[in-house]
Amino acid sequence: MTQAIETRQPSHLIRDYQNSIATSRDAFNAIHKEETLFGANAGAFQGNQAGPAESRPSAYEIFNAWANEELKKLIAAKNSEKLTGMLSTQDAFDAWHACLLRSFDDNWNTHAREGYPLSRRQLHKLVNLFVKWLRIKVPADIRALIEKHGHVPLNAPTLERLRDLLSDRTLVFPDNAVFDNWYTEVQTRIRAFTEGNGGSPLIVDVWCRAASLGDPDAE
User: For a Cys staple, 216 with which of 22, 113, 132, 157, CB 3.0–4.6 Å?
Assistant: First the structure.
């Protein structure tokens, strides 16, 4: 007797995501439509300022100066033909990503006023916005590696959308002390979802953002 194999039909939301992969990828590759200087606008720093109101440098200025220096490093890596190797596998990409996190955290601690730390949530989000922004500065083969291995910049509207996509309404931002472990778990879950349903984490990001009204990072 042949045993029936139970199959689960994808939810309406998953089907919507799958049907949107091509248009989301087109949007990711529409590099001429990027409007930010280095991936984040001033609204992305709400709730995580670098000092009292009107103090300088602002959080936005610290981020942009850091991003500009990191861009110079990547241009040097590209010129020495090392950039592809830095991004060619998930492990290599994640090692580079960890270096960016340390670099921006150190830079923030150097330039922000005492008593104005950068939360781990904001740190990861801003680094990921910068990484996604880099697609406009690199050739198509490197852009494809960023799309394949990049992480989702997690903000409140995106997380709300992910709760439904992953069928997990318990998915909420944790306390700062445990954020890094939570972040790794969530990014792993998103990547596993795309392995079964197509696309990539950054295509999930584009799809989530398409449902947002206004600036999803201004939170």
Answer: 157
